[in-house]
Amino acid sequence: MKVAVLDITGKDTGRKVELSSEVFEIEPNNHAIYLDVKQHLANKRQGTHKSKERAEISGSTRKIKKQKGTGTARAGSIKSGVFRGGGRMFGPRPKDYSFKLNKNLKRLARKSALSVQAKDNNLVVVENFDFDTVKTKNFVNVLKALGLENKKSLFVLAESNNNVYLSSRNLKSSKVLNSSQLSTYGILNANKIVFTEGSLEGVESNFNK
Description:
Number of domains: 2
CATH architecture of the largest domain: 3-Layer(aba) Sandwich
Number of strands: 6
Number of helices: 7
Radius of gyration: 27 Å
Oligomer: single chain
Strand content: 5-15%
CATH topology of the largest domain: Ribosomal Protein L4, Chain: A
Mean pLDDT: 93
Structural class: alpha/beta
CATH superfamily of the largest domain: Ribosomal protein L4/L1
């Protein structure tokens, strides 16, 4: 699969790069994608939800009415969950929602996600670029040149670049990662994925192990 290489002004450089068919043109495995996205979202959950149970409520311990003769159900404590202000019965407790997946499945899921985006023509390749200073306007100009100003975009760099990353940080619709940080959720959540030329080698080597 060949893709034209653009510069950061959006102009065609006249060159093309060959994308690995083993990464960008496989038959997508939907179940692997589902599991990897599910893990990503589950691992982000704090799991700190908690409600007070009967033993944790402050209140009198006296028996609130006599055992027999009232014609109603027995009641031994005002802290019971059946009374207003009492503890919650079977309420939520702190829980760790994270779970593990093996590396081969995660690799398959990410290749499947890239193949889905490639099939939908959502991949863009640009020349390697850098900024002299940290300035959001610089990154906005790149987005405008590539026609991504109002779209969710994911920029994949060959390695961490502080100036580019910090210039994009205030823009909610754009995210900058290096090739080793790609996730299935991040790939599918973007309308367009912009790879720098240098990042392609890292992506293909990481996913072809």
